[in-house]
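Archive maintenance. Older records in this collection stored only the sequence; we are now back-filling the structure field for every entry so that each record is complete. The fields below show one back-filled record exactly as it appears after the update. Entries are processed alphabetically, and ATP-dependent DNA helicase RecG is next in the queue.

ARCHIVE ENTRY
Title: ATP-dependent DNA helicase RecG
Organism field: Dokdonia ponticola
Length field: 700
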Amino acid sequence: MNPTFLQTPIDYLKGVGPNRADLLRAELGIHTYQDLIHLFPNRYIDRTRYYTISELERNNADVQVIGKVTSLKMIEGKGRRLVATFKDDSGSMELVWFRGQKWIRESIKLNTVYVIFGKTNYFNGSFSMPHPEMELLADHEKSLRSAMQPVYPSTEKLSNKGITNKVVNTLMQTLFLEAKSHLHETLSKPIMESLKLMPKREALLNIHFPQSQADLARAQYRLKFEEFFYIQLQLAFKNRMHKTKIKGYPFKNIGEHFNTFYNEHLPFELTGAQKRVLKEIRADLGSNAQMNRLLQGDVGSGKTIVALLSMLIALDNGFQACLMAPTEILSVQHYHGLVELCKPLNTSISLLTGSTKASDRRIIHEQLENGELKILIGTHALLEDKVKFKNLGLAIIDEQHRFGVKQRSKLWHKNEYPPHVLVMTATPIPRTLAMTVYGDLDVSVIDELPPGRKSIKTVHRYDANRLKVFAFIRDEIKKGRQVYIVYPLIQESEAMDYKDLMDGYESISREFPLPDYQISIVHGKMKTADKDYEMQRFIKGETQIMVATTVIEVGVNVPNASVMIIESAERFGLSQLHQLRGRVGRGAEQSYCILMTSFKLSSDSKTRLETMTRTNDGFEIAEVDLKLRGPGDITGTQQSGALHLKIGDIIRDNDILKIARSYAWGVVKDDPAFAKAENQIIRFMYAQMVKFKNIWSFIS
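Back-filled structure field:
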């Protein structure tokens, strides 16, 4: 199989030339024949049906009619126009042109059969069609162009320079006539037969020139399956290579640390989900392969206790463990929480952040290297070259999407073999996205809350209800509770009339004056020390109200805080709203989230607010978020490279994605070297994919 023909520069295609080639490269990224053939239509105009004039309806749909132009006349005066009488066996209608009349008058052949296409108008009991597309029936029947007209992606610049949809369509026809013999099969025979897939050449022909809706559907299915299949094949291969090539430390012992804590000091009974996840982690740690697992769990689902139990398994096997968090506040919180839990075990735990004093650092470095220090909690400071472990066996990374790939890989090199890695996130990743983006990681999900936790009540209120909201805050503070009030902006922006933080702080101070009320303020422009001071006042209960920007989104744990008020809630994304809501509901008391907005709301904002008030399920929220925002924005996946999809859509085509995943993982499990005769084509495609690093630059 020789893919070189399709790598021919687009300049060489008949009808392109250097100027058009430059435009196609700049505007649509089309460099080669291959790129053009994989420029898939956005939509199709259905030209499978021919109407008679008597069948026309008074609607705004495009129709095509076969008939003859029997007469032409120019109507002068205001709105000068050329009018043709167009007849078929069932009746007559008018065709109208307001411009280009001279050229049209000269080119139209009277009493010759045409196919006309366009939108109709209805006036005074008869139909007319302004500026119809016209084609002689003889040419129409010879054309490779299908009855389903493709509409290709375009830009204003292309249209202005004369590269219209019709031009792209013509170029595509030219390319197909040249390339037919160079379009080879890309999937194995068993897969093709099992799924009854359309052959590759036929699929490409029918995606550009479908003769019917059924042919188009089969072509789309085939090409979507192929795109998903090769993405999943990459992930499955990576996952297998990881497990077979990257050796891990086998943690065979479940010993004193784990058993003593689990049997005697566990503060509460684990949920079924926590037990299931722990079992999955234990199985990974006990194998000879390095663990590479993603632990997803909604805010408050109990990931920390699972992380601690995993660390205790490392300690039972003579290894050290570390936990890395994205912010100092979060790492301090983890540290205090774990120290409290580990008190009965007499386990050595230290905290390392940017604020750690030099004298304390020296002790930590020394104890890490001689093995005295068993568990280290910290921020990016853990990645510094000076931080050397005696034998790091388990690295836990919290909110991993906030760390870059290079940063995370530094942890791998803290030992001879890479440590086991457990990545934790409270940002629920939709199943569809997890399969595509994190497909090479093993995924565990904690999908139930600890018993006794009350569901947070969420309501939407307009600015006009503010006084009632203030009264509610007073009632909650009287009960001894604390309140968060979160704003989207720090300084007022002229372009936006949203309440900003400083303005809000002043009005809150007026409503809740000293000495009866104490207020903390926290935002991203404050110095770290000032921010921490204010946070600590709130955590200790010295202030009742925390006015803040989204810096409190991750990781502040104040069980006594029971009310979260989000100002200008329409400004926030769904996942951010859900994260903010998760700051309350951490104690046994009933908690509330109040979403404040103006009356002016877009339809997306309404959907977000309705979703938040309807459900507390982070995974359901993440699915809605994915539909609203698309996969590119969520959890920083635009860097993953896995989502530059040409034809598949991981939301709409979820069913095809699942089928492609099961086939790809099946092939890798059954024949990891692609050595079987039937898999030679897959072997070739995989080699091309690795070479070109882009699925559609080689799938042909």
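Update note: The first helix runs from residue 17 to 28. The radius of gyration is 32 Å.
Entry marked complete.
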